[in-house]
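Table S5 (text form). Sequence records supplied for joint modeling of the two-component complex.
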Amino acid sequence: MGLKELENKSIYIIREAYAEFENPAILWSMGKDSTTALWLCRKAFLGEIPFPVIHIDTGYKFKQMYEFRDRIAEEWGFDLVIAKNEEAMKTGMGPEKGKLECCTALKTEALMNYLDTHRFDALFLAIRRDEHGIRAKERVFSPRDEEFRWNYRDQPLEMWDQYQTQGRSEKGAVQHHTRVHPILHWRELDVWEYIKQEKDIPVNPMYFANNGKRYRSLGCEPCTSPIDSTAETIDEIVEELKMTKVAERSGRAQDKEKAFMMQKLRALGYM
Amino acid sequence: MNVNVVLVGHVDHGKSTLIGRLLYDSESIKDERVEEIQKLAEEYKRKFEFAYFLDSFEDELKEERTIDTVSLMFKSKKNYYTITDVPGHKEFIKNMLTGASHADVAVLVVSAEEGVQEQTRRHMFLLKMLGIKQVFVVVNKMDIEDYKKERFEEEKEQISKLLDSFDYATGEMLFIPVSAVEGDNIYKYSEQMKWYDGPTLIDALDGVTLKGKEKPLRFAVQDIYKVENEETIVGRVESGILRRADNVIFEPSGVKAKVEKIKVFEGEWAEAKAGASIGIIINGGVVKRGDVLGLLEKPPKPTNAFLGEAVLLDKNLKKGEVVEIRCGTAKVSGEIKEIRERIDSETGAVLESNPEEINEHDAATIVFATEPLVVEEFAEIPELGRFVLVKANKNIGAGVVLQTNFSF
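The corresponding structure-token record, covering 679 residues in total, follows.
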């Protein structure tokens, strides 16, 4: 798809979700994808984002990510809220206790608690199909039960932009909230070409090469490593991606520890 | 050009393998993914297979079958492709329809070893219903049949017979003998089938033209936002072109108005083409989500009854039952007023006339009595001629509109 078509479809999805759900929110990790999704929300609403922007803070993010977060939140003036699993953080949860355990406690559980307190019925997430085999199987509107489980064996019928839009239900019912994926149909290269085209989407400097290394995907400091790269500008990143045969999330430890790790994480409610 | 391709066919006829092969031969697969798959295959004591690029659920690998649809992107010398794999099991028809609904073109995969099977028939029946008429047929697993021309010709005849019965134009259809496992006639010409003088699959796909016919303007209202103190009607141009100063009507609200502004985040536009997600400002009148805008001279007509053909993916649906119907952004309740024919979604055969109910996987022609809404005949404006049926908040069926303004 061309960039205009990608954008049109994303805006359509965002507006559908906003019309169908009562209490949505968007997750923002400060990476290129979720920042692009925020930008698309601004476009969809012709200016201000009318719902909270949630950052799940594990306490393990890079310093540059926190700086970036606070700067953009101020510039764009949205309602930034921060979700943390304080309890797990106090007891010293960290990747050395197991990556699956750490991601589950500091990300998934932090989000669960926050969602339960604030009763969000829809959550925008900037995942893409080409990131990971498991994410390729996602629906645009993807229901989760109260345990955040993804019933991937029985996903809704989703034809022609007719999404299954069920609101939040009480405990005991099958559905808890709906994940909405406005950029599911974008590729990594599309995101960078779009950032190049739009000019006003801010980019965390960690994506640009420094001493022959750059981050291609941003996560927590202990579990994210940079790739070899000389790309110092957006244009150079676009060129690099056209040539590369290395996977985008190659620097993300939680995907790779063992086979189907990502599926296990996602079955537990991971993004 | 961008082309959406769906691969359909019976289980184990090699859809996932064929897509894996296309991705591999077009060099779209990352090295790391190849290594990962090799490792997995060892772990599960299996032979390396191209299908593992697509079947990413642990259950899919264990059960050796595709459960859910997946779309992957790759580029040939000419086109960008989004290629969609769908499961070949009856129990996953819901996922097959999800995957097929965005396709421009279909590739039917039939195993030379097994020939036409249940899901070959059902998938082709459903594609026909969804209006996907551009189809390439690949006869796969030619390696197992020693690349014999006679086997290919036999299969071709059998498949043509089936497709003729569904009214496909088989005369213009390409039939390609391939081996997805060996890579014959996918990206490279087969050394083993010199008797075949047609194009490879990728050349056939690269030759596709997508012709859109001219359609009247329709704009589906998604929502009304207040932006800088202006009531901004947001939505998508479904067909045709919307221009500033157009005289328009919104139905079923019946509001007549003039388009004062076409607004987007960046500013204002003079016109917006089909597919554009925009905002518009009109000179007055209250419209709502679900309304459809058209030009006054070629207006959308609201209806409270229509005839549709649908396939059911839930247990059953009875005459007299009320369901929710979604078309465009409209969501109305509709009664199953009349079930004209219950149709076998495998063979297309009429099973029953005027039945009291239909069951899971049945297709049917149904008269719906609805709250006022705008639907269009699928043959005229497909964007507003297809609908989804919802019961207890679950999408349970899908169909196309055969006739609007229906009276009964």
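Note: Helices of chain A lie at 3-20, 32-44, 63-76, 86-90, 99-118, 188-198, 234-243, 261-267.
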